[in-house]
Design a protein that fits this description.
- With 498 residues, the chain is α/β, with parallel strands linked by helices.
- The protein folds into 3 domains: 67 residues, 434 Repressor (Amino-terminal Domain), CATH 1.10.260; 246 residues, Type I PLP-dependent aspartate aminotransferase-like (Major domain) (Aspartate Aminotransferase, domain 2, 3-Layer(aba) Sandwich); 134 residues, Aspartate Aminotransferase, domain 1, CATH 3.90.1150.
- Helices cover 46% and strands 12% of the residues.
- The protein contains 20 helices and 13 strands.
- The strands form 3 sheets. It has a 7-stranded mixed β-sheet, sandwiched between helices. A 4-stranded mixed β-sheet has the order 1-12-13-11.
- Helix 8 crosses helix 16, helix 17 runs parallel beside helix 19 and helix 17 runs antiparallel to helix 20.
- The radius of gyration is 26 Å and the shape is globular.
- It binds pyridoxal-5'-phosphate (PLP).
- Pyridoxal-5'-phosphate binds next to helix 9.
- The site of pyridoxal-5'-phosphate has 13 residues, from helix 9.
């Protein structure tokens, strides 16, 4: 085996070699094709393989093939490129090129693939965040968000930052030191809410449910009976770590009976499953741009009722975060005057505007139905391969499918092979579910029939290759069957309605 082939064997794939050497994949591919690694890489090879391939072996290999020494990489590369000033010692010695990410099929827990229209919009020229045209766009963006959340709340806008910032924004404004907050935890993100309560100086009363189970309404009611001074109830509507959906309407209704305001995490639910802020009476809600909204990560749409705004305005103490102080941000995202607060991520906001417009054009109900449709097909395929869902069917989220990994299979190796051989990303388990489940996302633009079929074929192929008793084609056939049944039902429904 020559040194190029040995490198691929050690690192796992040509892509992994390219990553380790910070090179374009085409360069590594060329090494494998020509059967040697050029002599000038000898030292790096020895270093990066921890001595498993010695520099001298690379040199001998290369010499045997008598390569022409092309001076594409001078010995003092860093000096040549970055100059010989004192700063150059901070520059990496490897060649840096423009970054071109591979085209992946994203079927993990987020981020999702981004619609081409959103990508195009994002690459429009930058404008100032107080430019009247931008301000106009912001107003449209807010009304599109109100549509997505089904609310008339005037204070509905995207916080600059990922979903975690939206979460923190709610807690930092609504929880004053000493406030009691009931937090329902049935997965990773309920745990993060507890952290937020404590960091805001509040006292968390935790309602526990098993991972994979929804929040039990009776447990919340018991906690509120025992803690009548609780000011806030917080829960995750769609727990991404397990794929379970809780009954937000009922939980909010219970919280209100005990005079508590609600904070709802809709990071994974918004756009994938009904989130009816006004109808359910939700007080504060946050989401994230990179899940079912299929936009670039880094924005967190939030919405607050008038009651929340009044409570925050009435706080006597200074809110513990300058950036997230709702009172200060009102001047920027509020309806009337615009004053400088922070530099808005303009191009990301253009993108969110387009992503929400796509949902508006499709119609929320159609977007929810699309998630359910492809979930049914994916589920049929996964079950045909013998896989079991973590969550009881009644509470399964269509956009986040968690299945138990088959016994004896190296789950991390499966994910690695899906990524390297099929350019397909799926998610792993978190916390106590690490190594036990896979998570298949069907969110936003990633929720398409071709993704369902690619996923089932790729997974079947890898599992068969790893020795699992699976019949190639069974999963695809079950998924096609599920689609066909849904078509028939749709046709019957249309006929009846006509
Ligand atoms: C339910 C839930 N809440 C909060 C977050 C945090 O969002 P972000 O990663 O955008 O900060 C996530 C992220 O996956 C999530 O799934």
């Amino acid at each position: 085996m020559n040194s190029a082939e040995r490198l691929v064997e050690i690192f796992g794939s040509q892509a992994d070699v390219a990553r380790a050497f910070q090179l374009d994949r085409s360069v590594v591919n060329n090494w494998v094709k020509t059967g040697y690694v050029p002599a000038r890489w000898a030292m790096e090879v020895e270093q990066l393989t921890g001595g498993r391939i010695l520099a001298v072996e690379v040199l001998n290999d290369a010499a045997a093939r008598k390569p022409v020494r092309v001076k594409s990489r001078p010995d003092d590369f860093a000096g040549a490129v970055f100059g010989s000033d004192a700063m150059s010692k901070f520059a990496p010695t490897k060649r840096i090129q423009s970054f071109h990410p591979p085209q992946r099929t994203l079927m993990g827990p987020g981020p999702t693939e981004i619609h081409p229209r959103v990508l195009t919009t994002m690459s429009q020229p930058a404008i100032g965040y107080l430019d009247p045209i931008f301000v106009e766009m912001m107003e449209e963006l807010k009304s599109l968000l109100r549509y997505a959340y089904q609310t008339k709340n005037p204070l509905t806008f995207p916080v600059s930052g990922p979903g975690s910032v939206g979460m923190e924004y709610c807690f930092v404004n609504m929880v004053a030191p000493g406030d009691k907050v009931v937090v329902c935890r049935n997965g990773v993100f309920g745990g993060r809410m507890i952290e937020n309560v404590e960091r805001a100086g509040g006292v968390a009363v935790v309602v526990e449910d098993a991972w994979g189970e929804p929040v039990t309404p009776q447990k919340l009611e018991d906690a509120l009976k025992a803690n009548r001074d609780a000011k806030v109830v917080a829960f995750v509507h769609a727990e991404t770590s397990t794929g379970v959906q809780s009954d937000a309407k009922t939980l909010v209704e219970i919280a209100h009976r005990y005079n508590a305001l609600t904070i709802v995490d809709a990071v994974t639910s918004l756009g994938g499953t009904p989130v009816l802020v006004d109808e359910w009476g939700i007080d504060a809600i946050y989401s994230a741009s990179q899940k079912c909204l299929s936009c670039t990560p880094g924005l967190s749409p939030v919405s607050f009722s008038e009651q929340v705004v009044e409570r925050v305005k009435a706080r006597k103490d200074k809110i513990h975060s300058w950036f997230m102080d709702m009172n200060l941000l009102l001047g920027y995202w509020g309806a009337t005057t615009r004053t400088y607060h922070h530099t808005a991520p303009t191009n990301s906001l253009f993108a969110l505007h387009e992503a929400l417009l796509l949902i508006r054009e499709e119609g929320l109900e159609n977007a929810w139905a699309r998630a359910t449709r492809h979930h049914m097909a994916l589920k049929a395929g996964l079950e045909a391969m013998g896989m079991k869902f973590l969550v009881n069917e009644k509470y399964q989220l269509p956009q986040m499918n968690a299945v138990l990994c088959p016994e004896g299979v190296n789950e991390a190796e499966v994910r690695k092979r899906l990524l390297n051989e099929f350019n397909l990303e799926i998610g792993a388990g978190l916390g106590p579910l690490a190594g036990k489940i896979w998570r298949f996302g069907l969110m936003g633009y990633s929720c398409r029939p071709e993704n369902v079929m690619v996923c089932l074929s790729a997974l079947g192929s890898v599992l068969v290759d790893m020795g699992l008793p699976i019949h190639i084609g069974d999963a695809e056939s079950a998924a096609h069957g599920a689609y066909a049944q849904m078509h028939v039902k749709d046709a019957q429904r249309k006929k009846k309605a006509a």
